[in-house]
């Protein structure tokens, strides 16, 4: 006899079954998309639950870490069965007490092919299920009979590919409002911009707030990740200049298209001084957590002050927000830009706000630096050549040459490097030498 994972009630918050809460308390911190890693979980509650199959539930779970006031909501798709198919055992969270007695094996049902098919069927048909709403864009079709597979790569979202034709991206951390990945790709798609796959369907939750849960886009079968291309080139000190120039042109074209579909807002006169103060604040917080940064604080603060006093400001507009080599794919003889979520650790309102295009430029410049340092013998000259070519390519389509605003470029790169130092110290300590070398280079250039 099938038992439910939880007893369905209304959508008001309720504390999870203690054994399920214990399972999630151990499983969540191990997930790449969980933002509270390193912090003790104080409370887990379910704020919305919808049955997708008799054994599988879509859950919106609220997690609050010790010392935090607000916490975060996460989208989970979990199954529970007395004896699930063996193929699901390796995706198990563990055993929990069943609501009707006995024990159930809880598993990540995203890897259950039956559930993946149900999700795509819901998106094709549209309509609602509990607090979930499913929509498809006008004239967009979602075919049937596609075999699903979950992608192994997982960052701030999880993805299911259907028959190498469609990809369903599930956002994991859910905030109130429209996710910028859906918002930006939908607008660019309606405008006919060719370098970003346009969404064909999406779904969202209505309780306890309105929030984007996921979207379907065409899958670029056979596409090559630009990060891998760059790594291969850097490892043998290959010539990546033409590719870097093309990436620069693509980024410039993207910014021009974004400025067309999202008219830029007028910037305030005190924008740069305020930006410099924000950068100083992030530096101070990072230096408190990473002692190696402290000897560079004075020089970095000077870089931020130089930017505040300069006249090299640029109009603010919608940007990618987290642009790097891993967000670009090579397919059908052209570059395609993906993943417009922005930095998941930043609030949704900030990720949807207008920002300087230099921020995206710097994201790519830093990514070249990372690629150059991934082989046993770093190749900084390879990175320098790529960085220069990227800026030249950007100037051909972006309306300005990034090196013509040196104070702004250096400040954004210093801010980005400081962010990377804190990130690597927290998540990948073996990589911290890469951004620390950039910090030392920038601090020494002033």
List keywords for this structure.
alpha+beta, 12 helices, Aminoglycoside 3'-phosphotransferase, Chain: A, domain 2, about 450 residues, single chain
Walkthrough of the structure:
By secondary structure, this protein is α+β, with helices and mostly antiparallel strands. The chain has three domains: 14-108, no CATH class; 114-218, 2-Layer Sandwich (Phosphorylase Kinase, domain 1); 224-444, Alpha-Beta Complex (Aminoglycoside 3'-phosphotransferase, Chain: A, domain 2). The protein is 38% helix and 21% strand. It is built from twelve helices and 17 strands. The strands form three sheets. Strands 1, 2, 3, 4, 5, 6 and 12 form a seven-stranded antiparallel sheet that branches. Helix 7 (297-309) runs antiparallel to helix 11 and helix 11 (406-427) packs antiparallel against helix 12 (433-444). The longest helix is centred in the last third of the chain and has 22 residues, at 406-427. The chain starts with 13 loop residues before the first strand and ends with a helix.
């Amino acid at each position: 006899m099938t038992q439910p994972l939880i007893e369905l009630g209304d959508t008001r918050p309720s504390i999870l079954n203690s054994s399920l809460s214990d399972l999630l308390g151990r499983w969540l911190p191990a997930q790449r998309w969980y933002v509270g890693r390193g912090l003790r979980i104080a409370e887990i509650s379910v704020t919305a639950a919808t049955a997708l199959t008799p054994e599988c539930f879509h859950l919106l779970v609220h997690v609050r870490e010790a010392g935090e006031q607000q916490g975060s909501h996460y989208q989970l798709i979990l199954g529970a069965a007395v004896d699930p198919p063996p193929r699901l055992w390796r995706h198990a969270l563990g055993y929990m007490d069943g609501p009707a007695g006995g024990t159930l094996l809880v598993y990540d049902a995203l890897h259950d092919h039956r559930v993946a098919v149900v999700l795509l069927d819901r998106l094709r048909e549209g309509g609602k299920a509990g607090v979930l709403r499913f929509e498809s864009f006008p004239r967009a079709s979602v075919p049937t009979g596609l075999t699903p597979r979950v992608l192994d790569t997982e960052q701030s979202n999880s993805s299911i590919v259907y028959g190498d034709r469609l990809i369903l991206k599930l956002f994991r951390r859910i905030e109130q409002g429209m996710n910028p990945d859906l918002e930006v790709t939908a607008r660019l798609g309606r405008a006919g911009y060719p370098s970003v796959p346009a969404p064909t369907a999406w779904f969202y939750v209505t309780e306890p707030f309105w929030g984007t849960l996921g979207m379907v886009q065409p899958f670029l079968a056979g596409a090559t990740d630009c990060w891998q291309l760059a790594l291969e080139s850097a490892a043998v000190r290959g010539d990546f200049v033409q590719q870097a120039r093309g990436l620069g042109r693509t980024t410039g074209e993207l910014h021009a298209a974004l400025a067309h579909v999202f008219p830029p807002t007028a910037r305030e006169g005190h924008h740069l001084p305020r930006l410099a103060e924000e950068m100083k604040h992030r530096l101070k917080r990072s230096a408190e957590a990473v002692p190696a940064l402290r000897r560079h604080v004075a020089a970095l603060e000077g870089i931020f002050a130089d930017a505040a006093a300069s006249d090299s400001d640029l109009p603010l507009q919608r940007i990618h927000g987290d642009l790097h080599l891993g967000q670009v794919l090579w397919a059908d003889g052209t570059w395609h830009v993906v993943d417009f979520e922005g930095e998941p650790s930043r609030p949704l309102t900030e990720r949807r706000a207008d920002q300087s295009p230099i921020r995206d430029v710097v994201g790519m410049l830093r990514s070249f630096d990372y690629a150059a340092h991934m082989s046993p013998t770093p190749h900084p000259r390879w990175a320098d050549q790529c960085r220069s070519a990227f800026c030249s390519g950007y100037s051909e389509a972006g309306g300005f040459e990034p090196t013509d605003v040196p104070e702004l470029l250096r400040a954004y790169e210093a801010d980005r490097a400081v962010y990377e130092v804190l990130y690597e110290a927290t998540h990948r300590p073996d990589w911290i030498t890469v951004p620390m070398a950039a910090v030392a280079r920038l601090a020494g250039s002033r």
